[in-house]
Amino acid sequence: MSIFDKAGSQLYFIAEAGLNHNGDLNLAHDIIDISHRAGANAVKFQKRTVSQLAIKEVLDSKDERFPFLGSTYREIRESLEFKLSEYFQLKEHAESLSLDFIVTPFDIEAIEFLRPLNLESFKVASHSVRNLDFLHTLAHQKKPIIMSTGMSTLAEIDLAVRVWQEHKIEYALLHCVSSYPTPDSDANINVIETLKKRYGVMIGYSGHELDDLATIVAVSRGARIVERHVTLDRNLNGFDHKLSLEEEELRLTIDKLRRIETLLGSSQKSLLPSELVAREKYNVSMVSRRKLSRGEILSVDDITWKNPGTGIARSKRDFYIGRVLARDVDQDVLLLPEMFT
To answer: Is the pLDDT of residue 30 over 80?
Structure first.
């Protein structure tokens, strides 16, 4: 079953480990565990080839943000990358817990690096929407794609989508705002509807807000895939911990989203079994306004309308007006079909 089949039957929640493992394999395994306990469908990691990330001047520039990871941007980024053998361990761990294992490659070399893992799908980060050479290379893997759309115009998304269509790749798009954290004024959840109408594919939401309200609204507006960053502790030092959900927050968020899915229910209006008791109790039925005698012809002046709703409904009134009473009927009694000839 593909991720899109799963998302078609139940909201698909991706717990984004991202960089929150801080290059510590044990911490990465812990993130997998909390994602499983919280009820996520998948856990996602990221793979970069550091030498391809930026020019040498940028990579070797001093970076004092995270001294425990390194003193230059290159050192920091390299400290966050796992070996292939470690990715195999993480994948095995996730799948042992029935979590889908997804990775975001950030460059063509990373795609080749990940090939031995035989991943079932790939995530494309917003950074890569305009990198058409990268997208074509990824499309050759013939795997389903989930693509975030932050930092992109609709025209740019059109070009990326054309790649998936040309290669006959199944894809979904995530509304995303690449602002960390995202303020409410920039969330623009209504873009979900724009993407649904424009592309006619499954649409989701990748959130970077500090709480879960935007995510909840996104699901209410039709998002079928949700991606949120996950951390063991928001107070940890590192790139994305501050805008991530801790385990209990993650569990509560997923619980709310599952409940929203239930609340949204069906778009078909019908009489539900749960409504029958109230329908019978509170709807009105035809009631005798006065004492009626056998052989009388029922007139409009002889009736009124009161609950319960288990008698003759208002919509049936004209069928019974002019009918002959088959028995005597007291005042303020529910009139029933068997009381008429």
So the answer is: yes
β-bridge mates for residue 126, sequence order: none
Buried b (16+ CB within 10 A) or exposed e, 255-275: ebbeebeeeeeeeeeeeeeee
pLDDT digits (tens, 9 = 90+) for 182-205: 999 999 999 999 999 999 999 999
Mean pLDDT on 229-248:
95
Please provide residue 304's backbone torsions phi and psi, each rounded to the nearest 5 degrees.
-140, -175
What is d(CA 321, CA 296) in angstroms, rounded to the nearest whole number? 11
| ∠ CA 105-188-42, rounded to 5° | 35
Pull the structure tokens for residue 82. 């796992």
Up-side HSE of residue 9: CA atoms within 13 Å toward CB? 6
Structure confidence at residue 5 (pLDDT) = 82
Task: State how far the Cα of 212 lies from the Cα of 246, in Å rounded to an integer.
Answer: 12
Identify the H or E element spanning 16: strand 12-18
Residue 142 backbone class (left: φ over 0; alpha: ψ -120 to 50; beta: rest): left
**What is the pLDDT averaged over residues 56-81?**
96
Q: Confirm whether pTM is higher than 0.85.
A: yes
Query: Which domains does the chain carry?
Result: 3-264 (3.20.20.70), 273-339 (3.90.1210.10)
Mean pLDDT of 24-53: 98
Task: Note the pLDDT tens digit of each residue in 297-328.
Answer: 999 999 999 999 999 999 999 999 999 999 99
| Amino acid 271: pLDDT | 86
Cα 208 to Cα 177: distance, rounded to the nearest angstrom:
7
Backbone CA torsion sign across 107, 108, 114, 120: positive
- Helix ranges, the chain (H): 3-9, 25-38, 56-59, 73-79, 84-96, 108-114, 132-139, 154-166, 184-187, 191-199, 213-220, 247-264, 276-282, 317-320
Single-letter amino acid code for the residue at 341: T
Give CA–CA dist 333/277, Å, rounded: 20
Backbone angles phi, psi at 117, to 5 degrees: -70, -20
